[in-house]
């Protein structure tokens, strides 16, 4: 069997886009070129990947089974090409990081930017995926560092769990800002933004509110803590979110206070088991551990850039 990279790219684009026309646009190819590549791939495999009837185009069960492996394979090819380019150009290394939305929006962009002030020659790739996909990538050694929700769904990983306290986020000027600590009884009648998918944080908030005899309302839900903060900024309600997203100083018109009894969000920092990290990835990993440890202790992490400043000079 001879499977070409173009075959994998076309198949992956078709699975992601859902149609030949959209896949062609994504790959900057003509529709006939996409159809020909798909037919060639199916011929090599010996089985069809899509049902084709008039007005109907959908993946077969075999295509669904092959899709996850295809993405992993393309990532591996990309890493090989990038490593070859680094060796050819004399660049000293790269870091591949994968995260879900929990810390990808309000932490990693700043951490990466400050890292590059000290290590401008290092190439950094940040991928946003689901926790399960990230765990699979790390297990398959397709990424150096992963950040996912605990518990970790895949074996064969080195894992550090951080229990991050949650805080109450509200608009500046809200009466909650007069309080030093927010307690369940203070949430009475307030609309609290939920996290989609029956999140453990929401379950704990609901349980504490019930124990306090307090009725809370939920009118809006979203997938990420960072989006919940943006919804607070827009006036959609208040939110109980992790300290990373809740306490970041973004000058966005929101404020926060600690919440008690303490509610924690568990974040897992994962790396491929038994695989020594290169120097660049190890430096970034160490800084990330320091930052998350400070957040877990509800301490002020300080200037992100200082995490990479080994000589005390900015």
From TrEMBL:
PROSITE patterns: HTH_LYSR
Natural source organism: Hwanghaeella grinnelliae
HTH lysR-type domain sequence ranges: 1-60
Keywords tagged on the record: DNA-binding, Transcription, Transcription regulation
Example of a GO MF term: sequence-specific DNA binding
Superkingdom of origin: Bacteria
Protein name as annotated: LysR family transcriptional regulator
Family affiliation: Belongs to the LysR transcriptional regulatory family.
The keyword Coiled coil is annotated on this UniProt entry: no
Swiss-Prot/TrEMBL GO biological process terms: positive regulation of gene expression
UniProt-listed Pfam families: HTH_1 (PF00126), LysR_substrate (PF03466)
Keyword Transcription: yes
